[in-house]
Write a structure and sequence with these properties.
The structure holds 2 protein chains of 2 kinds. The termini of chain A are far apart. By secondary structure, chain A is an all-alpha fold. Helices cover about 50% and strands about 0% of the residues of chain A. Chain B is mainly alpha-helical. Chain B is elongated and about 100 Å long. The termini of chain B are far apart. The relative contact order of chain B is 0.08. Classes of the chains: A mainly alpha, B mainly alpha.
Chain lengths: ~120, ~600
């Protein structure tokens, strides 16, 4: 089936359900308490568009925030570690999110738990 | 008689102090690295020791830097430091003369007037001044007391001393300063009472003594006064090692080690520990700190250092600093406040940035060129700057290689400022390889943040590093660029990393003066304000940043310029968002006002002509 679909220029995304009840929401709360501007994010993606690290990797702050809010925090430690803290995202953010501190706070909330 | 019970508070306090200092200093010496210990040992017997002693005299006794800041403030500090020092030296000489040159117990010179009520003129005094010692000792005491009067005034009138805000001291410091302040009046009283009783003393103690003698029962008061004097000394000595006055012995040690070529190094480490204790909490750093504008007055260098010394450092306190370096410039002790801040952050942020997958797929930039151009992250964020630089290169006929045209990894400075030295060094290593691949002679960058780390930490094997403002100045001087003057009125803003960070003030002004009329603002050069956009800060929100930006803009716009010129893409971006005045980078100003060469210039011909 998948092979056939490819021949027509389509791909099939596997069925995926987000189980909000099973996800970890406490980390998002910890981060939001440490850096309240997380709550300002509208997921516009400007940060990811300007990101220096995103030029070379699949790192995306927008995606990180999305996962964080959903509570899918298991892979976050690996993701946020790719940031170089250069600060471009902070300057372009239309909502004035303190993105650099946000990254640091996510790392602190997530990394010790996943080591 | 050379002993009395009342000397004990002083004597025991002194012994206690010396014991504590001995333990503390031994611990620091033990903490020092091997090479540092050798350096420190060698310096003891070098010519540099003379320089060190001179610096100790100028800074620790005369308080030269305090004088430069404000003469009254300088005098106040000098009268205490130099005055007390002279009292000790002269007191010792005096006691030697009376005891026939013997080595006396340490309390003997301090309380000499209690033990000796001599009114005779000493043999050599006949030829000089009668009562030489008594006169001099009184004069020095008066000198110290004049400082004390100023210090009391400073409590409520700190503005007279050039300080809007003074340090808020903790309890122990209050105990210490109260005992210090009481030492000298107590000495005056004790000596005057005794002089009144025995009709001795110098010009002050004698006359005060006769007055007291007429109205007070001195035979009952003199002895308690000596007890009070001794007790105050004792209290001061016991509180000293844990109070701000620990700076007295530590600053001397700091000057010595600094002149021996020892750097701050790792945190926590011996030199950093020493720096923490060398802070006198004078509060000079408080007024210069722009974090006050944002209502963040708890993280100023003096409070940050105190918290670090007392092991109360908090993440928030460590993060709230723009690393602009204004406190570093103001500090009379020369404590590396920024280094300590980075050190504290290195403990806080140990977990951050540990994946370096972005280091692998770097585009190759091997093309040989004379000049390598690196716009930097911020340069890319302000396309006007990098476009202007490309125009300038082209117009001057320079063979250049724009190595981060298609993006690049960060220079590593932001990570370093967040305390992540190891992560930063991964980036610097990778960038170094990339830069060296080009085999160019000169690296030009548009970003002062990159420039700072390129020149401080990168090992570029003789390749010269220039900020674009310096490079443009060089092009103009060499005649490769011709600038046309305009009627614009401009103010130049010194970016922190370029000015205080790298000492570049002249070149951008040289260039700008040829294009526009330059007006200087109140806070320029080393005193320049931070724009508020700093990548060194980790904890502020955007409202606080904007307050700092607006404060800086208000000062910069005072001469009502047509354009605010800076040399840092981050400053430009930050000031731009303030919507107060047109903001341009020096490169953009140049690109707009240079004469366009129709034909590519041949460098050699121009140089020969």
């Amino acid at each position: 089936m998948e092979k056939k679909a490819r021949q027509f220029g389509y791909t099939i995304t596997r069925d995926r359900q987000i189980d909000y009840d099973a996800n970890k929401h406490d980390i998002s709360k910890i981060v939001a308490a440490a850096e309240p501007s997380l709550n300002l994010c509208i997921s516009c993606g400007t940060c990811s568009a300007t990101c220096s690290a995103a030029l070379f990797t699949d790192f995306s702050l927008r995606h990180v925030i999305l996962l964080l809010r959903r509570g899918e925090t298991s892979g976050l430690a690996k993701e946020v570690a790719k940031c170089m803290l250069c600060g471009k995202c902070q300057l372009v953010c239309p909502r004035n999110v303190s993105t650099r501190n946000l990254i640091i706070q996510i790392s602190k909330a997530v990394i010790p738990a996943q080591l | 008689m050379t002993f009395d019970l009342f000397v004990l508070p002083f004597f025991l306090g002194l012994l206690f102090l010396l014991a504590v200092l001995f333990i503390k200093y031994s611990r620091w010496i033990a903490m020092m690295s091997g090479p540092d210990r050798v350096k420190a040992g060698m310096a003891l017997f070098s010519v540099g020791m003379l320089k060190t002693m001179w610096e100790v005299f100028l800074e620790s006794l005369l308080h030269r830097k305090m004088f430069k800041r404000n003469p009254l403030l300088g005098y106040m500090h000098m009268s205490f430091a130099l005055g007390w020092f002279l009292l000790i030296v002269m007191g010792n000489l005096e006691s030697r003369v009376y005891s026939g040159g013997h080595i006396n117990p340490p309390y003997y010179p301090i309380f000499l007037k209690f033990f000796i009520h001599d009114k005779r003129v000493l043999p050599f005094e006949i030829f000089t001044l009668p009562g030489f010692f008594r006169f001099t000792m009184d004069l020095i005491l008066l000198f110290v007391l004049s400082g004390l009067v100023l210090a009391i005034f400073k409590r409520t009138r700190s503005r007279w001393f050039g300080m809007k805000r003074a340090t808020k001291h903790n309890k122990l410091d209050k105990w210490a300063i109260t005992s210090l302040w009481l030492i000298f009046p107590m000495r005056l009283l004790a000596e005057s009472f005794t002089a009144g009783l025995y009709k001795g003393g110098g010009f002050i103690t004698n006359s005060l003594g006769s007055i007291f003698d007429a109205v007070l029962p001195l035979q009952y008061l003199a002895y308690p006064a000596w007890w009070a004097y001794s007790t105050m000394l004792g209290v001061f000595f016991v509180t000293l090692p844990w109070s701000r006055f620990m700076h007295i012995p530590t600053e001397v040690m700091l000057i010595y080690l600094r002149n021996a070529g020892i750097k701050q190094g790792k945190y926590p480490g011996s030199f950093a520990e020493l720096e923490l204790r060398a802070c006198p909490r004078c509060g000079v750093c408080i007024d210069v700190c722009q974090m006050n504008d944002a209502g963040l007055n708890g993280s100023t260098a003096v409070y940050f250092i105190r918290a670090l010394r007392e092991n109360r450092a908090e993440v928030q306190l460590n993060s709230n600093c723009m690393m602009c370096g204004r406190c570093l410039e103001a500090c009379p002790v020369g404590i590396d406040t920024l280094g300590l801040r980075v050190g504290a952050r290195s403990v806080d942020n140990i977990m951050v940035a540990s994946d370096f997958s972005y280091l692998l797929p770097q585009p190759s930039v091997k093309r040989k060129a004379d000049v390598v151009y690196f716009a930097g992250c911020m340069g890319h964020l302000t396309p006007g700057v990098k476009n202007a630089m490309q125009k300038i290169f082209k117009n001057a006929g320079v063979n250049y290689n724009f190595i981060d045209k298609d993006g690049s990894i960060c220079c590593g400075r932001p990570l370093k400022l967040a305390g992540l030295k190891d992560a930063a060094s991964k980036l610097t290593d990778e960038n170094t390889l990339k830069i060296l691949e080009t085999r160019a002679d000169l690296l030009v960058t548009s970003c002062p943040i990159c420039y700072k780390i390129f020149s401080d930490d990168y090992k570029l094997k003789g390749m010269q590093v220039m900020h674009h403002s310096v490079y443009i100045d060089k092009l103009v001087t060499e005649g490769l660029l011709t600038l046309q003057p305009s009627a614009l009125r401009a103010v130049y803003h010194d970016p922190c990393e370029l000015g205080r960070g790298s000492g570049i003030y002249l070149e951008p002004r040289n260039v700008l003066k040829q294009i526009a009329e330059v007006a200087e603002v109140a806070e320029h050069g080393v005193n320049s304000l931070c724009c508020g956009g700093s990548i060194g800060e980790l904890g502020m929100n955007s409202t606080q940043r904007n307050t700092i930006r607006d404060g800086a803009l208000k000062m910069l716009c005072e001469p009502q310029p047509d354009v605010l010129v800076t040399a840092c893409p981050l400053c430009k971006k930050t000031f731009d968002s303030g919507n107060q005045v047109a903001v341009k980078d020096i490169a953009e100003m140049v690109a707009e006002s240079m004469t366009i060469n129709r034909q590519p210039v041949n460098n050699k011909e121009l140089v020969e002509a």
